[in-house]
Amino acid sequence: MHSLIKLLFSGRCVEPSDCERRTKWADADSVEVKVREIVARITLVPIENIRADSFIYRISSSNDEIEVIMQCEEDFEIEIPDGEVEQCESVGALVAYIKRRLDLHDR
After folding, report:
1. Could you report the per-residue pLDDT of 24-35, keeping only the tens digit for each?
2. pTM: predicted TM-score of the whole model, two decimal places
3. Which among 106, 91, 96 has a CA at the least distance from the CA of 43?
4. Which CATH number fits the domain that encloses residue 51?
């Protein structure tokens, strides 16, 4: 059964849960919307003021920045290693990172 699931998803899934997660976020635009919602909710900045070039550390405290990363990890069911968090300073960079982790970068 596992090999069938892997075959159906072009061999990119390691486990069925990976396939389910990628299917859930199959629309790359939904990733951006969700990240903007998370940032808005945690930082209390209106969502319409959050753009791809918004730097998370400029619109929030360091605690909020950590909370944004943790919430993204939970919602997208991924882990962002500490050494890679610095790549996610802007909203756009965070969205791009999550898309890469979910293998949505080419959609």
Report:
1. 655 668 899 999
2. 0.73
3. 91
4. 1.10.1200.10
